[in-house]
Design a protein that fits this description.
The complex is a heterodimer of chains A (about 300) and B (about 140).
Chain A: H1 2-16, H2 27-31, H3 56-86, H4 98-108, E1 118-126, E2 135-138, E3 149-152, H5 156-164, E4 169-171, H6 173-180, E5 188-191, H7 203-209, H8 224-232, E6 235-238, E7 243-250, H9 255-274, E8 283-291, E9 297-299
Parallel strand pairs in A: 3-4, 3-5
Antiparallel strand pairs in A: 1-7, 1-8, 2-6, 8-9
Chain B: H1 3-16, E1 22-23, E2 27-35, H2 43-51, H3 53-59, E3 65-70, H4 76-81, E4 85-90, E5 96-99, H5 105-115, E6 119-120
Parallel strand pairs in B: 2-3
Antiparallel strand pairs in B: 1-6, 2-4, 4-5
Helix pairs in contact in B: 2-5
The chains are: A alpha/beta (about 300), B alpha+beta (about 140).
Protein name (chain B): Ribosomal protein/NADH dehydrogenase domain-containing protein
InterPro entries (chain B): Ribosomal_mL43/mS25/NADH_DH, Ribosomal_mS25/mL61, Thioredoxin-like_sf
Organism (chain B): Myxozyma melibiosi
Chain lengths: ~300, ~140
């Protein structure tokens, strides 16, 4: 008796939940018969709410949409996979320290003229969907470009300060003499206002090359060290698709100089990522070091 | 392993395990001088630079190695006279000078190894050295 009572109560409970047990079909549904139809037309009924049979254009559009959705889904899946990879430190067979990487690159660039032997740092990142490029600027401790700067000044203290701050040549009358004899060449020049009279003799040599300091161009002033800082100064970088590529050093630099430059660049890059406007930030997948003719190796930076 | 890594490994092996993987004791400098074009027997020197000098530099990292390319001379006479010379300086003995004209790179290398009393470096695979296993900074 107890069992039967339990069963009936359960059945009534089921009947109360129509999703699970709908009970017998309502009698009304069974009794309604369709109107007598002799010929069933294949055309949609006029004004009826039946769905129209898809034509070629609609089918094409639907296929296109499905294709687009699939591509988006695949892209998302790929991004998720790469993000998972980026969250762990990957040690590949070609991962090495910066010293060893530099040794390989120096070997690969042996005998090449200084200036063509650039070491490039590549950062591969995993971008979120609809990603905008990362931009930033950095001031490397030792600039990799081979730019010679001449500073004309009649003050010896200023000349010494200029040489200490990255000028290749600095001096007064004796430097002008050297330029006159065409013993030295350079790509940039600055001068103090007091040294301008000295330069009248070399105007014909420097003028055509665009190297003559003048006030309108902003290359004449008393703050020579400031000029030098600004000129060798900041280097801009930006990512192209999922890659950042920046020249960080030359193979003639010492290991320590290369390391400091790489550290400065990576710090600037990370800062640029943090300050990026978009909510979803990219992750670093791998960091590579390469040179003009050399192999590309992974480094941990 | 992706094909990119395989390609880089081949490049690294060529540098570290090439035929010129030798340590040259007491060498202070090495310089090559030859014509920029291959004609008049200067091809071997150029090949030596491209194929063997990277390995030599890799196994002798302290030694400065220079290559001087002579611009192509205007006349035939001058081109005949242009030098194609390898010169290695040593701290304890006379320099080794090898004439590279009309010779293949392998011959030049063999003569250099013999004259400079080099010791071959025996390596199983390309060295990757020690590196600190630091964790990459995460950006989230």
């Amino acid at each position: 008796m107890i069992i039967r009572r339990g069963l009936t109560s359960r059945l009534t409970a089921l009947a109360a939940r129509p999703m699970l047990y709908a009970g017998p079909a309502p009698a009304a549904a069974a009794t309604t018969t369709p109107a007598l139809v002799r010929f069933k037309s294949s055309k949609p009924a006029k004004g009826g709410n039946t769905a129209p049979v898809a034509g070629f254009v609609q089918r094409e559009a639907a296929a296109k949409k499905a294709d687009k959705d699939k591509r988006l889904r695949d892209q998302k899946r790929k991004i998720e996979l790469l993000r998972r990879q980026a969250r762990t430190t990957r040690i590949t067979p070609i991962t090495m320290g910066i010293e060893m990487a530099a040794r390989y690159l120096r070997a690969a660039e042996v005998g090449r003229p200084d200036g063509t032997n650039m070491i490039t740092l590549m950062v591969k990142q995993v971008n979120p969907l609809h990603f905008q490029a990362i931009r930033g600027s950095v001031r490397l401790p030792k600039a990799p470009s081979l730019e010679r700067v001449a500073v004309f000044t009649d003050n010896e203290e200023e000349a010494a300060a200029a040489l200490a701050n990255g000028a290749t040549y600095a001096g007064g009358a004796e430097l002008v003499d050297k330029v006159l004899k065409e013993e030295i060449t350079f790509e940039k020049s600055f001068a103090t206002p007091t040294a301008l009279p000295l330069l009248r003799g070399v105007q014909r040599i420097l003028g055509p090359k665009g190297l003559m300091p003048n006030e309108r161009r902003g290359t004449v002033g008393t703050d020579i060290v400031g000029f030098l800082r600004a000129s060798s100064g900041t280097m801009d970088f930006r990512t192209i698709e999922d890659m950042l590529q920046v020249n960080v050093a030359r193979t003639t630099f010492t290991d320590e100089e290369i390391k400091l430059n790489i550290k400065a660049l990576m710090d600037a890059y990370r800062l640029a990522v943090v300050n990026h406007e978009q909510r979803h930030k990219p992750l670093i997948l791998e960091v590579m070091l390469t040179s003009t003719h050399g192999p590309a190796v992974n480094i941990l930076a | 392993m992706s094909s990119r890594i395989t390609r880089q490994i081949a490049h690294l092996k060529k540098i570290a395990l090439g035929k010129a993987a030798v340590e040259v004791p007491k060498m202070t400098s090495l310089s090559l001088e030859f014509k920029i074009r291959n004609s008049h027997g200067h091809m071997g020197a150029r090949k030596f630079w491209k194929e063997h000098l990277p390995s030599l530099q890799f196994h002798n990292p302290e030694v400065p190695m220079t290559v001087k390319l002579i611009p192509e001379p205007a006349s035939e006479k001058e081109a005949m006279r242009a030098p194609s010379v390898l010169r290695a300086e040593f701290s304890n003995r006379a320099p080794v000078v090898i004439d590279m004209k009309n010779r293949q790179s392998e011959e030049i290398l063999a003569e250099f190894i013999e004259a400079s009393q080099s010791k071959p470096v025996k390596l199983q695979t390309f060295p990757v050295g020690e590196f600190a296993k630091i964790k990459l900074n995460k950006i989230r």
